[in-house]
Amino acid sequence: MAYNTTGNHDVQGIRIGYAAGAFDLFHVGHLNILRQAKSRCDFLIAGVVSDEILAETKGRRPVIPLTERMEIVENIGLVDRVCAETVPDKMAVWDQLRFNIFFKGDDWKGTERARRLEEQFAARNVAVVYFPYTVHTSSTALRLALENLNMNRERHVYPLLNGTN
To answer: What's the predicted TM-score (pTM) here?
Structure first.
């Protein structure tokens, strides 16, 4: 299905979904959100949040660089378009892409930011759809596990350097 985001927005009746995320250390939770989003729209756009925006909003840079995260998301066969999300303002993203469904994990639901965004999207006739957060797997948990593995490996590989011999 073709979708033009260069000013031709007369796509009435087509459900255009937008699912944004870091998609860092891609895991089953990311897959679940994209799979569920794809099942609820005709055309799915995945917004992969830039390294700079992640550093600004989460206080840390991703493990996997933006171009690689975009390539992973583009090649899982669930999205129709992948774009880099380079601004933190979702209304600015909407101005560019004109989606009519916004998908998000439900760990975000009920926050002040979510309520504000729901109101802004409602004024633009954009539905906000939440999906269950995958509790047992998250990029944060994977990042911590990797950090622990690296710390343990350094203790065993370099015992003379860290005084644990």
So the answer is: 0.78
